[in-house]
């Protein structure tokens, strides 16, 4: 870009190659923001976008549920209190929370309720853009003296995907309020991340990754869109074998989560996505990327600074959940 004279005078372009995104989305950017004190005017994320330009995605959090029991010899299980049986009740309620509707007949109102203005009056339209929240049990643990004894504790991990209008507090309370959690006195908490980096540094953070959306009209979103339109037109392009998933609007959103949870979700730094590859290929067996995507993205990146007209007076943020220190009854925008 510099050699070709594609960086306008007064602009500085930073390229970051960061670690631990798969383990803890945005942790690297927490460090960049808090320790290196770097706050760019906007960020282009190069996560896969299927040839599209992405202006937001759902957030997520990692929840733990613990129940206690009383151990005894397996030959007389009635003398104990089996924690695994208690957790079995909770597992069914978690499944119902994800699968149920939100009609009066549903004792446990499903997460689809956030698409309904009755339950999410301020942000149901944003939720419909991003898609509904989800929850699934991802891990289960237990303790027992042996294979011939009653389990005295059981725990699960829940992967919770969050849409607009949901907060980290509301997601914890939803689990706490499940009938089986109340019945069995379950402890519900958010995980903390404290795994060391390759350098040995431990940079502890809660496992909460905020939801965010930019306005389609935001200057940085339009800079990427204008660059794409100038080079390739207003439709997604790609290899013939990639196009079955690309007949969608050019400007859209991710299904999965990215470092944008910190860049924009926590800190409000404008972020937009345009990257090679397909979301459906992420973590897939024999994952592939198309060479044409690499060329297309490199060309768009090179042109973006010349297309950027500045941030202007418009608030670029359409929805931002903010960090755990943000008042959570409204968007942090």
Automatic annotation (TrEMBL):
Q: Which GO terms describe its molecular function?
A: acetylornithine deacetylase activity
Q: Name one Pfam family in it.
A: M20_dimer
> What keywords were assigned to this record?
Hydrolase, Metal-binding
The EC number(s) given in the record are: 3.5.1.16
- Coiled coil feature spans: none
Pinpoint the Peptidase M20 dimerisation domain residues: 56-178
Top-level EC class as recorded in UniProt: hydrolase
Biological process annotations from GO: L-arginine biosynthetic process
Q: Which NCBIfam families match?
A: PRK13004.1, selenium_YgeY
What is the designated name of this protein? Answer: Acetylornithine deacetylase
Gene source species: bioreactor metagenome
Gene behind the chain: argE_10
């Amino acid at each position: 870009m510099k050699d070709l004279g594609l960086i306008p005078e007064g602009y500085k372009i930073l390229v970051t190659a960061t670690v631990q995104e798969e383990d803890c989305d945005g942790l690297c950017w927490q460090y960049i923001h808090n320790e290196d004190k770097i706050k760019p005017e906007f960020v282009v994320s190069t996560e896969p976008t299927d040839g599209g330009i992405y202006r937001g995605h759902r957030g997520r959090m990692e929840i733990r549920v613990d129940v206690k029991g009383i151990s005894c010899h397996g030959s007389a299980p009635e003398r104990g209190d089996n924690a695994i049986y208690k957790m079995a009740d909770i597992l069914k309620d978690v499944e119902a929370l994800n699968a149920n509707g939100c009609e009066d007949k549903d004792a446990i109102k499903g997460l689809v309720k956030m698409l309904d203005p009755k339950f999410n009056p301020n942000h149901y339209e944003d939720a419909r853009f991003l898609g509904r929240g989800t929850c699934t049990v991802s891990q289960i643990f237990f303790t027992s003296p042996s294979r011939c004894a009653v389990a005295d504790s059981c725990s699960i991990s829940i992967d919770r995907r969050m849409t607009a209008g949901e907060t980290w507090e509301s997601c914890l309370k939803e689990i706490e309020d499940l009938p089986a959690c109340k019945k069995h006195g379950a402890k519900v908490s958010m995980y903390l991340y404290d795994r060391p980096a390759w350098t040995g540094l431990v940079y502890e953070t809660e496992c909460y990754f905020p939801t965010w959306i930019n306005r389609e009209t935001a200057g940085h979103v339009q800079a990427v869109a204008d660059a794409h339109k100038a080079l390739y037109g207003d439709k997604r392009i790609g290899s013939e074998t990639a196009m079955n998933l690309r007949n969608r609007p050019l400007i859209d959103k991710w299904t999965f989560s990215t470092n944008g949870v910190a860049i924009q979700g926590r800190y409000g730094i404008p972020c937009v996505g345009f990257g090679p590859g397909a979301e459906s290929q992420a973590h897939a067996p024999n994952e592939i990327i198309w060479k044409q995507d690499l060329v297309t993205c490199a060309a768009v990146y090179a042109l973006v600074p010349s297309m950027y007209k500045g941030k202007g007076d418009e608030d670029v943020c359409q929805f931002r959940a903010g960090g755990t220190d943000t008042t959570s009854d409204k968007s942090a925008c």
